[in-house]
Specification:
Blueprint (H helix, E strand, L loop, with lengths): L18 H32 L2 H22 L2 H14 L5 H26 L1 H9 L3 H28 L5 H25 L4 H29 L11 H33 L1 H37 L3 H28 L1 H4 L11 H16 L3 H7 L3 H26 L1 H27 L6 H24 L3 H21 L7 H11 L1
Helix pairs in contact: 1-7, 1-10, 1-19, 2-4, 2-6, 2-9, 2-10, 3-4, 3-6, 3-9, 3-10, 4-6, 5-6, 6-7, 6-8, 7-8, 9-10, 9-15, 9-16, 10-11, 10-13, 11-13, 11-17, 13-16, 14-16, 15-16, 17-18
Length: 510
């Protein structure tokens, strides 16, 4: 990949960073992420309120294993396709796009089918390791195994469309279509009253979505397929997998960081505690979707800028995208921490035990989002091995802390372990990016947005708890804080460059 020069050695940022375009793609992705977050949360609410904690915990444990296996089978191609498609198009080699896609799909398909087959036939063994002899979880795993190849290919092809600087397939299919269909099918399973229908309702949308995303990618690659093909491929198979391989391991480790604690809680404490812990941690995922929305929009741009060694442009995009991430995610994480006792009521009786899980994880996410998309930037710079090392260290710390803390502190111990690993996995790449490329996420816009969120959404509702503890008063002050934060963000629209987003939209509406 070559050594990336220091920031001072590169020309100043110019129009080529296309902040307006990034903002519009980020807004589209953010809108889809909001719908996806609501639908995903509703799935958990329907399951926790409609089924017992044992059945809910078994399903959450099984789907956690499914998501880890899904990432394992993708082998890093979700990031590799975005990186190489954006790269070859930026370097005026459109004919390479079809070649890059073919290099990814065949190995991924073979591995996914093998893993799905093994999982299906050894489902009882897997269920026994996680939760003891339980026929319910074993049947859940078998149903999910059938849909594993569909889910893997769905994720890989969605990533392929993102390399073309379009968020439309991702938003329509991944952010809106799949979770919306998922909630409808879960409600249907609830009406049937059949627990065996739960994993089917959860996984079936992947198969439906795959047919649509395949057509979307075929349309996008049509023009590149007709371009003149060079005698020798610009991207070799060795180069593709040298980049993608470490990223694949890192992706599995990152998802394991997010899901392993659910499996460990189920194994050490039982399905009931796993259900409570899963419900409490869903709000961390809710905030992460905001970060992912911005990341999906700027990831191809980072690849292009770093391919051209434009670190000045990358610095500007990094600071601006960090400000967007803070302005979107900090309100969620702060309100989740402050309103935790009230929010948990939506899951039903007995779930209020997850209050401190929400508070601890929300605090760690403020640190993580304050660093911006630092791990993704490290990967887009071609340093996938460094990213793998960072994730491996965080995963090891998470595993050790879970083993030590869960027996002593229960689900709070699991939350502490995950929170510390989240902080570690963000501070390590932040130091490396600063040291190797001179890039920093911190800027005036992000500092102002963070301070506004802490005062309006943190201090104001907390005052209600301190004064009387009345839930109605707390909710009222939180609503006032939302209004204050919205007004303050509008006042900060120039420093946040919101005009880059709003002006083109208003012009199109006119």
């Amino acid at each position: 990949m070559g050594e990336v020069p220091k920031l001072a050695q590169v020309r100043q940022w110019g129009e080529q960073t296309d902040i307006g375009g990034l903002a519009r793609r980020g807004a589209l992705s953010l809108g889809g992420a909001a719908i996806s977050a609501v639908a995903s949360l509703l799935v958990v609410v329907v399951i926790t309120r409609g089924f017992g904690k044992a059945d809910a915990g078994a399903l959450f444990s099984a789907t956690s294993l499914f998501v880890i296996a899904e990432s394992l089978c993708a082998m890093g191609t979700v990031t590799g396709l975005v990186y190489f498609i954006a790269r070859v198009r930026a370097l005026d080699q459109p004919s390479e796009v079809h070649h890059v896609i073919k290099m990814a799909i065949l190995p991924v398909t073979v591995v996914a089918v093998i893993v799905a087959t093994l999982t299906f036939f050894f489902s009882s063994t897997v269920a026994g390791i996680v939760q003891g002899p339980d026929g319910t979880m074993s049947s859940y795993i078998r149903v999910l195994a059938v849909f594993l190849p569909f889910a893997v290919l769905f994720d890989v092809l969605i990533a392929g469309t993102q390399g073309f600087h379009t968020m439309t397939p991702t938003v329509l299919l991944e952010k809106i279509g799949r979770p919306t269909l998922q909630i409808l099918l879960v409600v249907a399973a609830l009406e049937l009253g059949k627990t065996w229908a739960l994993p089917l309702a959860w996984a079936c949308p992947y198969a439906v979505g795959l047919t649509f995303v395949a057509g979307a990618l075929a349309r996008l690659t049509g023009k590149e397929r007709r371009a003149t093909v060079p005698a020798e491929p610009v991207v070799s198979r060795r180069e593709f997998w040298r980049y993608t391989g470490p990223r694949g391991v890192a992706a599995v480790a990152q998802l394991t960081l997010q899901r392993l604690d659910i499996v460990l809680v189920a194994s050490m404490l039982g399905a009931r505690e796993a259900a409570i812990y899963t419900a409490a941690t869903r709000f961390v995922v809710l905030g992460q979707l905001g970060s992912q929305a911005v990341a999906l929009a700027v990831q191809p741009k980072f690849s292009e800028l770093l391919a051209k060694q434009d670190l000045a442009g990358a610095q500007h995009v990094y600071k601006m995208s960090t400000a967007w991430v803070i302005s979107v995610t900090w309100p969620i994480h702060i309100l989740v921490a402050v309103l935790a006792p009230i929010i948990l009521l939506m899951f039903g009786a007995g779930y209020e035990e997850g209050r401190w899980v929400m508070v601890i994880l929300a605090g760690s996410m403020l640190v993580a989002t304050g660093c911006g998309m630092v791990s993704m930037l490290l990967v887009m710079a071609g340093r996938t091995t460094a990213n793998l090392v960072n994730v491996a260290i965080a995963l090891t710390a998470n595993l050790v802390l879970n083993i030590l803390l869960i027996p002593r502190l229960g689900i709070v111990g699991a939350a502490i372990a995950w929170a510390l690993s989240i902080v570690l996995s963000n501070l390590a790449p932040l130091f490396e990016i600063r040291l190797s490329m001179g890039l920093s996420p911190f800027g005036r816009a992000s500092a102002r947005s963070a301070a506004l969120a802490l005062v309006a959404l943190g201090a104001l509702p907390s005052l209600g708890w301190m004064l009387s503890g009345n839930k109605s008063l707390v909710i009222g002050l939180a609503a006032c804080g939302v209004v204050l934060y919205t007004a303050g963000t509008w006042r900060l629209r120039k420093s946040l460059q919101l005009d880059s987003l709003l002006s083109p939209i208003a012009a199109r509406m006119r």
